[in-house]
Amino acid sequence: MEAELLLPGGTAGTTRWVVGRAAIAIASLGLLVLLVLLPPVYVLLAAALVAGLIVTLRFPVAGFCLLAFSIPWTSSFALPVAGFPVTFTDVLVASLAVGWFVSLRHEKSRTAPWTPFLLAFIVAIILSTTQAEDSHAALREIVKWAEVAMVYVSASRLLTTRRELLAVVAALIAAGVSEALLGYVQFLFQLGPEPF
User: pLDDT digits over 171-184, tens only?
Assistant: First the structure.
């Protein structure tokens, strides 16, 4: 049996209620400070990130569907955090990882297929960065491959029904088609990079 932290004179339910409300109040205060300090574009981006995080934590299949669109469409919109660009895709992968860790707590342990090989691949990538000329770029690549591993492991755990898998496949196809349509529009109207 786990020990619970209780407020004086409170029950477990009231303690969770108070702690939950305090966390919401602190987060709201932090958001208000950000509203004052950040430019409006970053505030809108942060709001979109929070919305994506909430949806992904509540409905993991929606997170995978959003991920299909975020990879091609949001790579140019990044917030610099400690010298690294953080995109909507990074936030979605982090929220899928949180969902995966939560599912591990509530269900019996089940490993994803190919996990040992995936871990060996990540270790090989980390070892190969010892020869990299640009350690900053090498670290970014390690993070990207770790994100791929996390998406694989969380998908093998969180996508459990045929309907969920079909929804993700449909989102992947729709994302690819939408990117192709953008390419056609750019070609027809001579928009985009100089070679067009």
Answer: 999 999 999 998 88
